[in-house]
């Protein structure tokens, strides 16, 4: 069966590889977003999916929207169905009708929970212990189409958005393949989404700022959810400090929210409940370092506080 694959970020690479290797499927072309500026020098860089598709020898179409000007090229691929993983744009109705069996999206949440661009990040920030992935038939809404299949995944205390997304990208690939085949053959009948919906809008820099007055567990969930992107941060002495990981420390109390103390060669920051241990930080303009090394460089720790 001929398949068009649409995806953009690194997370969308494992499913592309899996579909490409599946003898039951033929990925005939890849649709991805246009090259984008990256880094301080704003170098125009192809997406992770574009780079991998070219390595696999697959034709690549680049577009930030699937408008009428792209329809002929998509039809010319000969695909009868499209697979979508984090392509990054809503499709108009005319585009949804291009392929005989439609567009099947792999989304990293248990729909209708966490509809939007940052489902895993928002789930971890909310403290969800069980996450998952869903395949569904694209419609014009934001992740609102009928569900084809799901899988679940348990979150550990060590997980960040990066580790969960990596797992789901790999475990979700077989689900996507079976969903494509099931929908195309008529063996699977998508079901309308049921339950209360929640939104997972894209994260911005301000979203990642730590609020030290929140309880320790909430702070820890927040840091894990925004790691590695956009990256948890706070301010010290008027400059940003990235916080790479914190560990709730219920045995440490008596520290004012945001204040930092060294106790027994460990660095703790106060929150709205008990403290959290800081393990690694990245001061503005510097490389990542052990929190203890950073804290030792401050002369008056009793006066150090994040804002």
From TrEMBL:
Keywords assigned by UniProt, alphabetized: Protein biosynthesis, Transferase
EC numbers on record: 2.1.2.9
Domain of life where this protein originates: Bacteria
One Gene Ontology molecular-function label: methionyl-tRNA formyltransferase activity
Cellular-component GO terms for this entry: cytosol
Substrates-to-products reaction catalysed: L-methionyl-tRNA(fMet) + (6R)-10-formyltetrahydrofolate = N-formyl-L-methionyl-tRNA(fMet) + (6S)-5,6,7,8-tetrahydrofolate + H(+)
Domain Formyl transferase C-terminal: 203-298
InterPro entries assigned to the protein according to its UniProt record, in alphabetical order: Fmt, Formyl_trans_C, Formyl_transf_N, Formyl_transf_N_sf, Formyl_transferase-like_C_sf, Met-tRNA-FMT_C, Met-tRNA-FMT_N
Residues noted as binding (6S)-5,6,7,8-tetrahydrofolate in the record, renumbered to the chain: 109-112
Domain called Formyl transferase N-terminal: residue spans: 3-177
Pfam families associated with the record: Formyl_trans_C, Formyl_trans_N
Family, as annotated: Belongs to the Fmt family.
HAMAP family: Formyl_trans
Function summary: Attaches a formyl group to the free amino group of methionyl-tRNA(fMet). The formyl group appears to play a dual role in the initiator identity of N-formylmethionyl-tRNA by promoting its recognition by IF2 and preventing the misappropriation of this tRNA by the elongation apparatus.
Protein name: Methionyl-tRNA formyltransferase
Organism name: Kocuria rhizophila
């Amino acid at each position: 069966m001929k398949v068009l694959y649409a995806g953009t970020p690194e997370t969308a690479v494992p499913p592309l590889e899996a579909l490409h290797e599946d003898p039951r499927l033929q990925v005939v072309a890849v649709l991805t977003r246009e090259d984008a500026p990256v880094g301080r020098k704003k170098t125009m860089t192809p997406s992770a999916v574009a780079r991998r598709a070219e390595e696999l020898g697959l034709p690549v179409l680049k577009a930030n929207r699937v408008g009428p000007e792209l329809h002929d090229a998509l039809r010319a691929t000969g695909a009868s169905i499209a697979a979508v993983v984090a392509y990054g744009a809503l499709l108009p109705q005319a585009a949804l009708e291009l392929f005989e069996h439609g567009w099947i999206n792999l989304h990293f949440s248990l729909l209708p929970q966490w509809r939007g661009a940052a489902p895993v990040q928002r789930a971890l920030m909310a403290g969800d212990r069980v996450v998952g992935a869903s395949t569904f038939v694209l419609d014009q809404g934001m992740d609102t189409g009928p569900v084809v299949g799901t899988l679940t995944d348990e979150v550990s205390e060590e997980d960040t958005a990066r580790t969960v997304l990596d797992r789901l990208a790999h475990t979700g690939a077989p689900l996507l393949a079976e969903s494509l085949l099931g929908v195309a053959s008529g063996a699977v009948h998508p079901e309308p989404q049921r339950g209360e919906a929640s939104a997972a809008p894209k994260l911005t820099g301000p979203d990642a700022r730590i609020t030290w007055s929140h309880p320790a567990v909430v702070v820890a969930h927040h840091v894990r959810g925004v790691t590695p992107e956009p990256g948890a941060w706070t301010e010290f002495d008027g400059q940003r400090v990235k916080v790479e990981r914190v560990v709730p420390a219920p045995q440490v109390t008596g520290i004012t929210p945001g204040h930092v103390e060294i106790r027994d060669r460990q660095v703790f920051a106060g929150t709205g409940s008990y403290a959290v241990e800081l393990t690694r930080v990245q001061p503005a303009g510097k490389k990542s370092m052990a929190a203890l090394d950073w804290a030792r460089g401050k002369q008056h720790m009793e006066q150090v506080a994040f804002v």
